[in-house]
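BUG: 3D viewer hangs when loading the predicted structure for this chain

Environment: internal workstation, default settings.
Expected: structure renders.
Actual: progress bar stalls at 90%.

Input used:
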Amino acid sequence: MISVSEATQAILAHLHSPAVARVPIEKAIRNILAETIKADRDFPPFDRVTMDGIAIAFDQYQAGAREFAIEKIHAAGEPQVALDNPSNAIEVMTGAMLPEGTDTVIRYEDVIINDKRIASLRDIMITKGQSIHSKGQDARKDETLLEPGLKLSAAEIALLASVGKTQVAIVQGPKTAIIGSGDELVSVNDIPMIHQIRRSNTYALQAAMHDLNWAAGQYHLADNKEQLSMALKKLLDEHDVLILSGGVSKGKFDFIPAVLEELGVKKVFHEVSQRPGKPFWFGVKGSKRIFALPGNPVSTFMCFYRYIRPWFFRSLGVETKPEHAVLAKDFSFQPKLTYFLQVQVRNENGCLRAYPDQGGGSGDFANLKKIDGFLELPSEKTDFKAGDVFPFIPFRG
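Structure tokens produced before the viewer hung:
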């Protein structure tokens, strides 16, 4: 049996080597960027008007002018125009190029325009260059805007469009199969008999992966060694990653570890000094990665967020920042195991405080609806005091 730290290091030592694909930017959101994006011209590419109003030469205002004859109107999307008489003004619309010969924009709210097209300034203070978005203020041509490893949001999609990228290189997640096992489990469409329960772990895993933009198919296998061997061989051949739930403990029908090793999967570890999730099994076969999680729902859930989620991000070149929370109440746990305490968290005066809510143990998946994540309590202690800070593994938000 190995420690949580050793299990983490072993998993991160076997990252997936992802492929790169090009996709239309309409489909790129939530994917991981795999190329450097540079500005194809200055941003903005011209001195841009940011308020509807009038454009003037500031030195005229500085010399005492408070009335300006309007020469013309200049709209966004039109080629640049010029001021014919420096003592006059041009009406300008938001987004327009700043007219040549002007350097200051005064918004409509601060002027009165009479029927003779004379703009009179209200009693206000004017600053040279106001209401102008200067050329190159945001970025210069060839300046790096986005770097590889960034998860693309709507904001980045806008940037991609602005530099003319109709397609973008993204990192492809591993082709993955989620596999449940156990003869006591029936389809969600079935009415279970008294000795049966509906499958839920594979749905929980698939939903958690969907949050990461990580696609995976669901499979269910019977507790039959020969059938398991045939099915897992096919799934291994067709996928980069297998995530199994159940069949990894010491029961008479827990065939998964033996079958995987018979199929040439090298065991990296089996059993981690933790609760829940002690029977966790991890192995590799060439470039394949196999995570075999305990079947208890909370164990499956915790192991995914503590081990597999960080592994996924690291494999795609994304560094995630660890979170911490303050234990809000004293808590004791006797066995010399790392304990993942179910907690509700609250932000209190800028401090993330974690309130224990253990529920009914690793089989009580209904309790997950009440909690926000797990507080990782170290194995070298048995008594944990309110005010102590520990790593926090969230699964919401």
